Amino acid sequence: MRDISLHVLDIANNSLEAAADLVEILVEEDTINNILRVRIKDNGRGMDKETAKKAVDPFYTSRKTRKVGLGLPLLKASCDRCSGTFSIKSEPGKGTEIDASFQYDNIDRPPLGDMPETVFSLVILNPSIDFVYRHSYNGQAFMMDTRDLREVLQGLPFNTPEVAGWLSGHLKEGISNLMSTSSL
Fold first, then answer.
1. Does residue 29 contact residue 95 with C-beta atoms inside 8 Å?
2. Domains of the chain listed by start with CATH number
3. What is the strand order of the sheet 95-103 is part of?
């Protein structure tokens, strides 16, 4: 995958296939300690220990539509190439947490990619699922929680043109402000 945001999209889609109704995405950029960390946590079906071990094998997949599962193995390989770490915590009936870290300045680290667009797509295409997105940069943070937005919108769907336009701008502006505030 070309960038980390595509890995996030892939893993979040795995969460949705596992019947999650809450997906939490954390991106932590810490240039001071030279770490980029991405964590995706869901409340889906979860996996037993044996399945979680197999999940990083490219020749294992639980999907019936293809014979290989490359998402998690490719992410783990990227972490390994970049002096990072990778872990899966999962429990049947309780969900799964994927934690990936990278050495921030490693020449082999994929770019982060367009996280606002990735989160926007997940929310718009899955309007009945709750998403929490938290992005921090050197201690400053931006957060979006669809549960809070649902209260404000009072039943207006995320995929209506007005709401979708606002949400896209909100995500882009939030990350842009985060980066500009942190660089002062």
1. no
2. 4-182 (3.30.565.10)
3. 85-91, 95-103, 35-42, 22-30, 130-137, 140-145
**What is the spatial distance between Cα 33 and Cα 36, in angstroms, rounded to a whole number?**
9
To the nearest 10 degrees (0 to 180), the angle between helices 4-17 and 115-125 is 20
Q: Which is nearest to 39 in space by CA: 85, 94, 92, 93? A: 85
pLDDT digits (tens, 9 = 90+) for 155-171: 899 999 999 999 999 99
Q: Model's pTM, two decimal places?
A: 0.91
Alpha helices in 18-145 (DSSP H): 49-54, 71-81, 115-125
Looking at residue 82, its amino acid is C
> Residue 162, exposed/middle/buried by CB under 10 A (0-12, 13-18, 19+)?
exposed
Helices 71-81 and 4-17 meet at what angle, rounded to 10? Answer: 140
